[in-house]
Design goal:
heterodimer; A: alpha/beta; Rossmann fold; SH3 type barrels; Elongation Factor Tu (Ef-tu), domain 3; B: alpha/beta; seven-stranded mixed beta sheet; 14 strands; 43% helix; 14% strand
Chain lengths: 372, 385
């Protein structure tokens, strides 16, 4: 198990004692991550990020990392590990860079991934910058991914792999990151937490979006973007086949909840093909029309060991969290990432990340701008 | 380099005399309210402790009501006197501890009180004219006045005797939270003229979880805790004889040593201020430069976040505080500094060093050695917004 600076986290005595800031959400992964680095002999300080300016206490059914209970769990874990612990108030940054971005992306007809944005802007920008200024060498998190010589790789636990949501990090960000869990399965992490006496050992995994406590994304968006009736148009016939209360409520590839009130021309199910926020129009069509082969990504990040591919290279691409992996040819040109898929993909939504892999190694990423 | 504990205003180590007095009782059986021999023995411990505390603080034994600490005593004084007086206006200084402010605001939210914060000047002082003017807006409707003896954050000492006299001109009861003052300043209950005074065990070298409300005759708050009526029917709950014994021993020693403590701590404290200024020339000392707690040094470090300073100092073995309350561990700008007219950014860049009976010159040397580097680091990290 290694990280970017080359020392072995699992070793009895590190080659150099690093000052490490461990981001502790209150969950089992980040607690074990912090414990492992501390045990490896590094100087570890735990920090819980307060991401909500109005943390509810003991919300039933609340998930994620924003509650007072989560802060207490993180503090308790830090006490058991025996490291100092602080809470950093990142609520304003989080609201601006993640929550508002989430809402405005939906308003623009895209489908954002807030976890990806949080890693990019909060954990490995706001927190990392502050940590470096305060004399820390690195930020450690409980993400399931590996860093080998500064290169991001998938976790050995394929089902829990989080390299996709870290794929936006730059080489510079990765150079100051430590992911101590990438060589372990989730089951191993839980067993280790129990062995270490961490009370979060059997705390349920967090799901969904941490700032939407009840998991109702549509209601969350409706509250912020309002409701406005608009047409659902069938691309095959050009006819209006239903209406909706706001185009932002849809995602490319969505089939359920379309409220189409008449039989389709070919009698087959309809899927969302496109979302047009200005005219508030949702276009639907048959599954075959969803298939894309060409993807254009904006804000490309080239973070693997290879040089930037100004000529096409063969690699694979993942187009959403826990999504399928496609063979492709990728090329950087004009500040964009152009991806030609070997086989067509469906449900490719602008706003999601396209993360490129060479085997299990992340080589680059971009935000999907369009697909055809 | 060892640890420099400079957070005595938060809690101070127990005095050996208090540990001895308390541990002597821990193995004994007996509820002070029981009538048998074991009960009588425990009762004697409690009553001797009551007499000790009364003697040390210039009160009568019957004026001492034991509580489970300062917060309970503040709650009893403010809620209890409000309910007993059946008047609406509650005048509290804007720089009170949350243990006094929050009960007042709770009364406003739930029981029809009108809370009127008494403004302070830029040094944190409540001016007698401010209190007089506030009372005179409608004297007949004032339930009580509460102004702390000395401020827990910035250390400013209030003109308690003058303020209490003004309240008394109108027959209004006056409460003071004196948890920071006892042991650092001369504190006399009867002589000060206050009607109710909060004292805490662990702030004076006694155990945590015990305190007292001193109540003059005629000040009869409505109980907050109902039950067996153990303390003059004003406060219920089995008396914690061991803790009370430790509390009394601590009060006695702290009050006896007060003049020497004050002199020694203010010398150390002035040295600390001088050397922090030398290391960080643009540092600002908050609070009254003259009338302040001998052990208190409270600074604002421009361009720094208090939390960052605290973390860096902790890593260097210096234990201090931002002095303000936290919610979920997230620092809010101090209401005390805001009331003193500071802006939120400066308020968030503040630190309190508080000295106590175990403080030494080595502690001051320790701070002087690391503070320059720490402030430089914190400035690099900037203000967290």
């Amino acid at each position: 198990m290694t990280h970017s600076t080359g020392e072995s986290i699992g070793a009895d005595r590190p080659a150099r004692r690093l000052r490490v800031l461990a981001a502790m959400s209150g969950g089992v992964d980040s607690a074990v991550a912090a414990a492992r680095i501390a045990e490896a002999g590094h100087d570890v300080t735990g920090v819980h990020l307060a991401l909500s300016s109005n943390p509810q206490s003991y919300r039933t059914g609340a998930r994620g990392c924003c509650t007072l209970e989560d802060a207490r769990d993180a503090r308790r874990a830090a006490d058991v590990i025996g490291i100092p612990f602080y809470v950093w108030d990142m609520a304003e940054r989080f609201h601006r860079d993640v929550v508002e971005d989430f809402v405005s992306e939906y308003a623009a007809g895209r489908t954002p991934n807030p976890c990806l944005r949080c890693n990019e802007k909060i954990k490995f920008e706001a927190v990392l910058d502050r940590a470096l200024a305060l004399d820390f060498d690195a930020v450690a998190t409980g993400h399931h991914a590996r860093l080998v010589d500064g290169v991001l790789r998938r976790s050995v636990d394929e089902g829990k792999d989080q390299s996709y949501v870290l794929g936006v990090l730059t080489r510079e960000q990765l150079a100051h990151a430590i992911f101590p869990l990438g060589d372990s399965t989730k089951a191993q992490v839980r067993a280790e937490a129990a062995r270490r006496g961490l009370s979060v050992a059997d705390k349920p995994d967090s799901h969904d979006i941490c700032f939407i406590a009840d998991g109702d994304t549509q209601a969350f968006l409706a509250e912020r973007l309002g409701a406005a009736d608009g047409p659902i148009v069938d691309a095959m016939t050009g006819q209006v086949v239903g209406k909706h209360q706001g185009a932002y409520g849809f995602t490319i590839g969505q089939r359920k909840g379309l409220h189409i009130d008449q039989p389709t021309a070919d009698g087959r199910p309809r899927y969302v093909l496109s979302i047009e926020p200005v005219s508030n129009t949702v276009t639907v069509g048959p599954r075959a029309s969803l298939q894309v082969r060409t993807i254009v990504g904006e804000r490309p990040v080239w973070n693997g060991p290879q040089a930037e591919p100004y000529e096409p290279i063969a690699c694979t691409v993942q187009l959403r969290a826990h999504g399928e992996v496609y063979g492709c040819r990728a090329q950087l040109s004009g500040g964009e990432l152009h991806i030609e898929l070997d086989t067509p993909a469906t449900g490719v939504a602008p706003g999601q990340g396209a993360v490129l892999y060479d085997g299990d190694m992340v080589i680059g990423s971009a935000t999907i701008a369009s697909a055809a | 380099m060892g640890i420099a504990y400079l957070d005595h205003a938060s809690t101070t180590p127990m005095l050996p005399e208090a540990i001895e007095a308390m541990t002597a009782q821990l193995g004994q059986v007996g509820n002070p309210s029981s009538l048998h021999a074991a009960g009588r023995r425990a009762r004697r411990v409690v009553e001797e402790s009551r007499e000790t505390i009364a003697g040390a603080l210039g009160a009568r034994p019957s004026e001492v009501v034991f509580t489970a600490g300062g917060t309970e005593a503040d709650n009893l004084a403010i809620k209890g006197l409000y309910w007993a007086r059946k008047r609406r206006r509650v005048l509290v200084s804007a720089v009170e501890h949350h243990a006094a402010l929050d009960p007042a605001h709770w009364l406003a939210d739930h029981h029809g009180a009108i809370v009127e914060p008494l403004e302070v000047d830029d040094l944190g002082r409540v001016h007698p004219d401010t209190l007089r003017a506030a009372i005179e807006r409608d004297p007949d409707d004032v339930a009580l006045v509460s102004v702390m003896w000395a401020n827990n954050e910035v250390g400013t000492v209030q003109p308690i005797r003058v303020l209490a006299a003004i309240a008394h001109e109108h027959g209004i009861p006056f409460h003071t939270d004196a948890v920071q003052a006892v042991g650092q300043l001369p504190v006399g209950f009867a002589e000060s003229g206050v009607d109710a005074m909060t004292v805490s065990g662990h702030k004076v070298g006694g155990p945590m979880g015990v305190g007292a409300l001193l109540l003059s005759r005629g000040a009869d708050p409505v109980p907050v805790l109902h039950g067996g009526g153990q303390e003059r029917d004003v406060r219920s709950g089995t008396l914690d004889a061991p803790a009370i014994a430790g509390f009394a021993a601590a009060v006695q020693v702290a009050v006896e040593n007060q003049p020497a403590t004050a002199e020694r701590l203010s010398t150390l404290r002035d040295d600390l201020i001088e050397r922090v200024r030398r290391a960080v020339p643009d540092v600002v000392l908050n609070g009254d430069p003259v009338n302040r707690l001998p052990g208190n040094a409270h600074f604002s470090f421009p361009g720094c976040e208090g939390d960052a300073l605290l973390m860096l100092l902790d890593a260097k073995g210096v234990e201090c505080s931002t002095g303000s309350a936290c919610s979920a561990g997230v620092a809010q700008p101090s209401h005390v500094l805001l009331a003193m007219g500071q802006d939120g950014v400066r308020a968030r860049g503040s630190l309190r060093f508080s000295l106590g009976h175990t403080s030494t010159k080595a502690d001051v040397d320790h701070v002087a050695e690391v503070i320059g580097h720490v402030v430089e680091r914190a400035r690099r990290a900037g203000i967290l917004i």
